[in-house]
Amino acid sequence: MKRVPLHLATAAMRLARPVFDRDGLLVAGAGSALSNRVLQLLRRLAIQTVPVDEDTPVPTWATVADLGGAVREQIERFAREDETGPMLALRDAVLRRLTRQAEIAQTEEQLWHAPREGDPEGRP
Question: Strand, helix or coil at 48?
Answer without folding.
Answer: coil
